[in-house]
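Please, structure for the following, as tokens.
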Amino acid sequence: YTIAGIYSTGLVEFDASTAVMLIADLQTLVVLDPGRIHEVAVATTDPAAASQTAERIAAALGGADRALAVAPWPELNPVLAEYVALADSLYWIFIIVIFAIASFGIANTMLMATFERRREFAVMLALGSSPWSIVGSVLYEALAIGLVSLALGAAVTAPLMTWFYVAPPSLAWLFGNVTLQGALMTPTLRVGYNLPAWTAATIGLILTALIAAFYPAIRAARVPPADTLSGL
């Protein structure tokens, strides 16, 4: 066989153990009958759908009856699958920390606001307003804060996310390429449009604002009108 060229993917293990050749030459080399191959690799747009895709392919080909083995990538590379699961867990921890910070921020804001407005709440209660109406007014204010924060956050991050989606910047110049269990990873700030995730984040932000404001709302509703108006 004549070597026509040498390629480099940046993955040393892959480059040292892989050759690209005509299928007819490969069949002769490994003693395969013409028209037969030993492996087919299928790529999916969603890595999480690999297992379901493998099951459908196995059912369509009749793998058990024809001695064909169909395996998704988590079975072929379990260490990489564990790494992906670990990364997903870290993402959830990151999300929980962000929502916790938002919760404390809203709670602190609403506590200060209700403290400064004690006399206002006392007047409302003295005029016949029910405690639950006070709770509702504070929660409405928290909801407004959450919606305004959501709008401002979307306005600031939407152009950035669009840029990362259309032309994701590569950090290879800073970190270089990373290899893990035979997989080559390029550090790229890549994002994707995920409407379910955005919807969940929006609902989570609104619920966080309401839950964080519930305790300040209860405190505002329990202001003693007589003592507060008398300056005690």
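The two ends are 97 Å apart (CA to CA). Residues 78-229 form one domain.
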